[in-house]
Protein backbone atom coordinates (compact mmCIF):
# COMPACT_ATOMS: atom_id res chain seq x y z
CA UNK A 1 0.00 0.00 0.00
CA UNK A 2 2.78 2.43 0.88
CA UNK A 3 4.53 1.93 -2.49
CA UNK A 4 1.31 2.79 -4.33
CA UNK A 5 0.80 5.90 -2.20
CA UNK A 6 4.38 6.97 -3.00
CA UNK A 7 3.72 6.58 -6.73
CA UNK A 8 0.49 8.55 -6.46
CA UNK A 9 2.21 11.40 -4.64
CA UNK A 10 5.20 11.46 -7.00
CA UNK A 11 3.34 11.71 -10.30
CA UNK A 12 0.36 13.33 -11.92
CA UNK A 13 0.01 10.43 -14.35
CA UNK A 14 -3.23 8.43 -14.04
CA UNK A 15 -2.58 5.20 -12.11
CA UNK A 16 -4.38 1.87 -12.53
CA UNK A 17 -4.08 -0.59 -9.66
CA UNK A 18 -4.84 -4.28 -9.50
CA UNK A 19 -3.97 -7.27 -7.39
CA UNK A 20 -5.90 -8.71 -4.48
CA UNK A 21 -8.78 -6.22 -4.65
CA UNK A 22 -11.92 -8.20 -3.89
CA UNK A 23 -14.37 -5.93 -2.04
CA UNK A 24 -16.23 -2.71 -2.70
CA UNK A 25 -14.59 -1.18 0.39
CA UNK A 26 -11.13 -1.87 -1.09
CA UNK A 27 -12.20 -0.41 -4.44
CA UNK A 28 -13.53 2.75 -2.80
CA UNK A 29 -10.46 3.14 -0.57
CA UNK A 30 -8.06 3.03 -3.54
CA UNK A 31 -10.16 5.40 -5.63
CA UNK A 32 -10.34 7.77 -2.65
CA UNK A 33 -6.53 7.53 -2.35
CA UNK A 34 -6.17 8.82 -5.91
CA UNK A 35 -6.03 5.71 -8.09
CA UNK A 36 -7.80 6.43 -11.40
CA UNK A 37 -8.88 2.88 -12.19
CA UNK A 38 -9.10 -0.33 -10.20
CA UNK A 39 -8.41 -3.63 -11.96
CA UNK A 40 -10.40 -6.63 -10.78
CA UNK A 41 -9.16 -10.08 -11.78
CA UNK A 42 -9.99 -13.01 -9.54
CA UNK A 43 -13.06 -11.10 -8.34
CA UNK A 44 -14.31 -10.95 -11.94
CA UNK A 45 -14.54 -14.73 -12.03
CA UNK A 46 -15.58 -15.40 -8.45
CA UNK A 47 -17.81 -12.38 -7.75
CA UNK A 48 -19.06 -10.96 -11.07
CA UNK A 49 -21.82 -9.04 -9.27
CA UNK A 50 -19.15 -6.98 -7.48
CA UNK A 51 -17.70 -5.98 -10.86
CA UNK A 52 -21.09 -5.23 -12.40
CA UNK A 53 -22.27 -3.17 -9.42
CA UNK A 54 -18.98 -1.25 -9.11
CA UNK A 55 -18.78 -0.57 -12.87
CA UNK A 56 -22.32 0.81 -12.85
CA UNK A 57 -21.69 3.02 -9.82
CA UNK A 58 -18.18 4.13 -10.82
CA UNK A 59 -18.22 4.81 -14.58
CA UNK A 60 -14.81 4.63 -16.22
CA UNK A 61 -13.05 3.46 -13.08
CA UNK A 62 -13.40 -0.33 -13.15
CA UNK A 63 -11.20 -2.50 -15.37
CA UNK A 64 -11.42 -6.27 -15.59
CA UNK A 65 -8.10 -8.11 -15.72
CA UNK A 66 -8.35 -11.39 -17.59
CA UNK A 67 -5.28 -13.57 -17.21
CA UNK A 68 -5.36 -16.65 -19.41
CA UNK A 69 -3.40 -19.83 -19.98
CA UNK A 70 -4.23 -21.51 -23.30
CA UNK A 71 -7.38 -19.40 -23.55
CA UNK A 72 -8.67 -20.42 -20.10
CA UNK A 73 -8.97 -17.96 -17.20
CA UNK A 74 -6.23 -18.21 -14.55
CA UNK A 75 -6.87 -16.83 -11.06
CA UNK A 76 -5.34 -16.33 -7.64
CA UNK A 77 -1.96 -15.13 -8.80
CA UNK A 78 -2.05 -17.60 -11.71
CA UNK A 79 -1.93 -20.51 -9.28
CA UNK A 80 -5.18 -21.97 -10.63
CA UNK A 81 -6.67 -22.34 -14.09
CA UNK A 82 -10.45 -22.23 -14.17
CA UNK A 83 -12.86 -24.06 -16.45
CA UNK A 84 -13.98 -20.78 -18.04
CA UNK A 85 -12.80 -19.54 -21.40
CA UNK A 86 -11.36 -16.01 -21.34
CA UNK A 87 -13.75 -14.91 -24.10
CA UNK A 88 -16.72 -16.14 -22.06
CA UNK A 89 -15.60 -14.15 -19.01
CA UNK A 90 -15.16 -11.02 -21.13
CA UNK A 91 -18.70 -11.35 -22.51
CA UNK A 92 -20.08 -11.53 -18.97
CA UNK A 93 -19.25 -7.82 -18.55
CA UNK A 94 -20.54 -6.52 -21.88
CA UNK A 95 -22.66 -3.40 -21.42
CA UNK A 96 -22.25 -2.99 -17.65
CA UNK A 97 -19.86 -0.03 -17.73
CA UNK A 98 -16.47 -1.75 -17.44
CA UNK A 99 -13.93 0.77 -18.76
CA UNK A 100 -11.51 -1.76 -20.27
CA UNK A 101 -10.22 -5.30 -20.22
CA UNK A 102 -6.54 -5.95 -19.52
CA UNK A 103 -5.87 -9.23 -21.28
CA UNK A 104 -2.73 -11.19 -20.36
CA UNK A 105 -1.39 -14.37 -21.90
CA UNK A 106 0.38 -15.52 -18.76
CA UNK A 107 2.64 -17.93 -20.61
CA UNK A 108 4.34 -14.86 -22.10
CA UNK A 109 4.18 -12.35 -19.24
CA UNK A 110 7.64 -11.11 -18.27
CA UNK A 111 9.28 -13.38 -20.84
CA UNK A 112 9.80 -10.79 -23.62
CA UNK A 113 8.90 -13.46 -26.19
CA UNK A 114 6.42 -11.32 -28.11
CA UNK A 115 2.80 -10.50 -27.43
CA UNK A 116 0.08 -13.01 -28.33
CA UNK A 117 -1.54 -10.92 -31.07
CA UNK A 118 -4.06 -13.58 -32.14
CA UNK A 119 -5.41 -14.12 -28.62
CA UNK A 120 -5.61 -10.38 -27.98
CA UNK A 121 -7.42 -9.78 -31.28
CA UNK A 122 -9.87 -12.59 -30.48
CA UNK A 123 -10.65 -10.94 -27.16
CA UNK A 124 -11.07 -7.50 -28.78
CA UNK A 125 -13.50 -8.95 -31.32
CA UNK A 126 -15.54 -10.73 -28.64
CA UNK A 127 -16.76 -7.56 -26.90
CA UNK A 128 -17.19 -3.83 -27.41
CA UNK A 129 -15.18 -3.12 -24.23
CA UNK A 130 -11.73 -1.68 -25.08
CA UNK A 131 -9.02 -4.35 -24.80
CA UNK A 132 -5.52 -3.60 -23.51
CA UNK A 133 -2.85 -6.18 -24.32
CA UNK A 134 -0.47 -7.40 -21.64
CA UNK A 135 2.25 -9.98 -21.47
CA UNK A 136 5.28 -10.65 -23.63
CA UNK A 137 5.85 -7.27 -25.27
CA UNK A 138 9.52 -7.35 -26.24
CA UNK A 139 9.97 -4.57 -28.76
CA UNK A 140 8.36 -1.69 -30.59
CA UNK A 141 7.48 -4.13 -33.39
CA UNK A 142 5.10 -5.89 -30.97
CA UNK A 143 3.23 -2.62 -30.61
CA UNK A 144 3.06 -2.27 -34.39
CA UNK A 145 1.83 -5.86 -34.66
CA UNK A 146 -0.98 -5.09 -32.22
CA UNK A 147 -1.92 -1.98 -34.21
CA UNK A 148 -2.13 -4.10 -37.38
CA UNK A 149 -3.91 -7.05 -35.73
CA UNK A 150 -6.60 -8.65 -37.83
CA UNK A 151 -10.10 -8.29 -36.54
CA UNK A 152 -13.13 -6.08 -36.40
CA UNK A 153 -12.07 -3.97 -33.43
CA UNK A 154 -8.75 -2.28 -32.76
CA UNK A 155 -6.75 -3.14 -29.68
CA UNK A 156 -6.96 -0.12 -27.37
CA UNK A 157 -3.46 -0.26 -25.94
CA UNK A 158 -0.73 -2.33 -24.39
CA UNK A 159 1.05 -2.55 -21.09
CA UNK A 160 4.84 -2.37 -21.12
CA UNK A 161 6.64 -4.06 -18.27
CA UNK A 162 9.83 -6.04 -18.33
CA UNK A 163 11.05 -4.77 -21.72
CA UNK A 164 10.62 -1.18 -20.50
CA UNK A 165 12.38 -1.85 -17.18
CA UNK A 166 15.25 -3.61 -18.95
CA UNK A 167 15.68 -0.74 -21.43
CA UNK A 168 14.71 -2.81 -24.49
CA UNK A 169 11.96 -0.36 -25.43
CA UNK A 170 12.36 3.39 -25.63
CA UNK A 171 9.15 4.98 -24.29
CA UNK A 172 9.12 7.72 -26.97
CA UNK A 173 9.43 5.15 -29.77
CA UNK A 174 6.73 3.00 -28.17
CA UNK A 175 4.33 5.95 -28.03
CA UNK A 176 5.13 6.86 -31.64
CA UNK A 177 4.41 3.28 -32.76
CA UNK A 178 1.13 3.31 -30.85
CA UNK A 179 0.05 6.48 -32.67
CA UNK A 180 0.86 5.17 -36.16
CA UNK A 181 -2.18 4.42 -38.29
CA UNK A 182 -3.08 0.74 -38.37
CA UNK A 183 -2.23 -0.98 -41.66
Can you describe this structure?
- With 183 residues, the protein is an alpha/beta fold.
- Helices cover 39% and strands 20% of the residues.
- It contains 9 helices and 8 strands.
- The protein has helices at residues 2-10, 24-33, 42-46, 48-57, 86-92, 117-126, 140-147, 162-165, 171-179; strands at 16-18, 37-40, 62-69, 72-75, 80-85, 100-105, 131-134, 157-158.
- The termini are far apart.
- The mean pLDDT is 90.
Provide tags for this entry:
183 residues; alpha/beta; eight-stranded mixed β-sheet; 9 helices; 8 strands; 39% helix; 20% strand
| Helix and strand composition category | alpha/beta
- The CA-CA distance between the termini, in Å, is 42 Å
Main beta sheet: strand number and arrangement? 8 strands, mixed
Rg, alpha carbons: 16 Å
Q: What's the mean pLDDT score?
A: 90
Helices, by number, come to: 9
In short:
This protein has 183 residues and is of the alpha/beta class. It has helices spanning 2-10, 24-33, 42-46, 48-57, 86-92, 117-126, 140-147, 162-165, 171-179, and strands spanning 16-18, 37-40, 62-69, 72-75, 80-85, 100-105, 131-134, 157-158.
Topology:
Elements: H1 2-10, E1 16-18, H2 24-33, E2 37-40, H3 42-46, H4 48-57, E3 62-69, E4 72-75, E5 80-85, H5 86-92, E6 100-105, H6 117-126, E7 131-134, H7 140-147, E8 157-158, H8 162-165, H9 171-179
Parallel strand pairs: 1-2, 2-3, 3-6, 6-7, 7-8
Antiparallel strand pairs: 3-4, 4-5
Helix pairs in contact: 7-9
Amino acid sequence: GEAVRSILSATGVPVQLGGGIRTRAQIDAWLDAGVSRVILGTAALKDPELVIDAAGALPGQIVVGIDARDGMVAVEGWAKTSEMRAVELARRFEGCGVAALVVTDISRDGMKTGVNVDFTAEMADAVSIPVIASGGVASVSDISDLRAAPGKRPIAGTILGRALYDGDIDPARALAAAREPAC
